[in-house]
Amino acid sequence: MASASACELTSLSATDALSAFRAGTLAPSELLTATIARIDAVNGDRNTGINAFTELLFDDAIAAARVADNSYALARREGTPTPALLGIPVVTKEKHGLAGRSLSQGLTACRGETAHANHPVVDRILAAGGLIHARTTSPEFSCATVTHSPIWGVTRNPWNLAASPGGSSGGAGSALAAGMATLATASDIAGSTRIPAGFTGTVGYKAPYGRVPGLPPLAADWYRGDGPMGRTVADTALLSAVMSGRHPLDHGSWGANGIRPDAEQLRGPEAARGLRIGLDLTLGDYPVAASVRANTERVARQLEAAGAEIVPVILPWTTEQITRTTFAHFGHILGPAMAALTAGTEDQLAAYTGQFIADAARAAQGVSLPESLALDAALQCELADAMTGLDALLTPTQAVEMLDAAGDYLDGIDVVDGNGNVRHLDHYWEAHMTSPFNVANRCPVLSVPSGVSSVGVPTGVQIVGHPFDEAMVFRVGSAIEALVGMPAHLDRIYPTAG
């Protein structure tokens, strides 16, 4: 691949890059050099650019890439195996602490704080040979579905710079979509992995609760989880295998490390044959934009043509019910934790952070924790009933075509549904269709691209599996990926750059 352009190199999947490393047709240092050049060419500044990063770690990554070059040369001579991610450029979300580096989580009040040790997923990526060359932006304390903060400015969507990449893992989604990373870490408590995956045409995975270890005490929040993002289903499964598994710091973590779907499960369109897949276009009464709905229906038709049985499903949910359920939960755990962390610095918070804390506190008034658990259980039972006899459930990732990059949405959001009707949602989080599956957080959920909306921003679909059935969502995801035919990321985004 010596004659390949920087764009061609930075559009490589991780699995293809690893094959080239092993064959000796590409060196890790070459891919990293191209990735750094790509960042220099397209990331831009915090005011008008993509602005996906909080920190660049090029020197450390370059040194590690040279070591990886030598390791592959030795492995080729001696026929020895190499670590799972050796030489792959990976970006990590700033909240995934790197020892001695910033751990502000976007909060002005926490500016200058540093991590005392690596986050478990960071340790595992480094042990697998990944090259952490940059750290990515998020909103304050990852509590918004847009990505901007007073510390880091506005992160924009490479597909449409007026649009947000979503949040809270918005920097990760933008970096992947623009070819500035091959893999990325993310986190998800209400959709923070899947929402940016949907808006940036990438793949994001929310594993069952505890499958990917987190850090106490908030690792005990059963809505949350850390996870992988990539540009392909196989890449995302690869990073998931590296990140997942029992860890001594997280007593809620479980399962073996290094487990990934095999070739039989990730076999493209053939993977759909014989499956019964439920289709719910609105998850009750979500007002879904016409282009999002059309793209989801197209995915379902293609799965059906590939041999799947598509079964219409109507869940009895309302956005009001889901918001009441989730915010009562946040009002007992995340909201108080954020309030304690930011006490005395309320005047320094982004407007959306203050509103989240207030909304969570208000939602929990009069709803005890046991009552909150009952709300969770009701939604979980409804989902279980709907998925009886099905292998997986298919639904849109987002209901709207885009969010404004710098938007706060303090007064909610007006959305236009598939019939052209305008509806006002009191909370803009209701524009995403992800949070029910944080309530049902033992269910694995994979978001994969479904097309592009009328405003030039990608759309995504979620594949929801039965509790702990990780292999099924990757199986269905591989079929959709092969069938949908999304535009190549770097051909569509900044086609003359690099």
UniProtKB/TrEMBL annotation:
UniProt xrefs under SUPFAM superfamilies: Amidase signature (AS) enzymes (SSF75304)
Residues annotated as domain Amidase: 30-473
Domain of life: Bacteria
Entry's family note: Belongs to the amidase family.
Pfam families cross-referenced by the UniProt entry: Amidase
Annotated protein name in UniProt: Amidase
Organism annotation: Leucobacter coleopterorum
